[in-house]
Amino acid sequence: MAVFVPVRWVAPLLYGVVLVGGLYYAVAGPGPTGWWRAAGFVAVLGALFVLEAMGGRRPGARVPLLLARCALIGAVVVLDASGLSQVLFVLLPFTAYFAFGRTTALALGALCLAGLLTAYVLTAPGWYRDLEHVSDLLMLTVGLVLALSMAAVAVGEQRARREVEEYAARVAELSAATERNRLARDIHDSLGHHLTAMSVQLEMASDFRALDPDAAQRALNEARRSVRLALGDVRQSVRALRDEAARPSLSVALAGLAEDGATPPRVTVEVSGDENAYGAAELTALYRAAQEGVTNARRHARASRVTVVVCLEGEAARMVVTDDGLGFAPDAADSAAGGFGLVGMRERVQLVAGSVDIESGPGAGTRLTVTVPRGKT
């Protein structure tokens, strides 16, 4: 059971009021009060102050603290000649509400009323005809009701605060996981694409170094260009992390794919429609999907030609990426260890409520279709 923190100022305030009232009665009361009784009264109240301070530092000792508080309050009531200290009984169910819950607090409140009523029956025959005794009983009842109500409100507020904190922690954890996934997709889609191009170009330069120095030099130049593009993507990712990213231009980005290297495959891009009708998230999802399709065609499919057709008209954008490569089994690629690109592409498109369809087979090439609904610009 969760343990809540009592309202700290309630108990010390009541102790102070009872101390002042008891001492005033001892000095100005109608009858003499022995010094030993007044000294004991002050000493026990001092012990209650110390107990409250210890309870704040040792919240785990709930039962011993409750029993000690009961014993000390009982001693104060016996030593107090003014009778004001009976108000301290409300602290028992009040503090128990925080430590043990509502049921225990209600039971202690009932025991306090029963104890006072029993004391009246045993020590004051006909107490129900005495207005002072009846008034004390009613005031204790009202005090218990108010104390329990205050404790219930305080516990409810603390419980709500804890739930909010737990919810905030869960949201932060989910946000961190989402951000990790996004960064993983960005690293794969941007740096992975350029590193693949560099790998192909450097292999080509190595193979043609002796046979065709000019072709090897062109491949090295393209590798350098891929390095520059990769650095540009890194800078763009840093700007995005700093919330400084500009709105992407889909047509310009796709044109960069078509110009990305002189090595096969040849990439043809066709874009129609108004991309201003789509938001940055939708355009980024389309570009990353096209980039993944071109990267897979270059890395795995041994394709000689890739076509990217984008239609941005109507209520949804539709992009089709086709190649004439070796093809593959889409289900096997999704489940394989090397299928992170396809998984990340599906996740990115799903984040903008889009869909991905892959048609491929061994020796049949690949057709990638991405549909993204129009979002907020």
Walk me through the topology.
Layout: H1 10-28, H2 35-57, H3 62-79, H4 91-100, H5 102-123, H6 131-207, H7 213-241, H8 250-258, E1 266-272, H9 280-301, E2 305-311, E3 316-323, H10 330-335, H11 340-351, E4 355-360, E5 366-373
Parallel strand pairs: 1-2
Antiparallel strand pairs: 2-3, 3-5, 4-5
Helix pairs in contact: 1-2, 2-3, 3-4, 4-5, 4-6, 5-6, 6-7, 6-9, 6-11, 8-9, 9-11
Write up what this structure looks like.
With 377 residues, the protein is α+β, with helices and mostly antiparallel strands. The protein is 66% helix and 10% strand. The protein has a 5-stranded mixed sheet, with helices on one face. β1, α9 and β2 form a beta-alpha-beta unit. The mean pLDDT is 81.
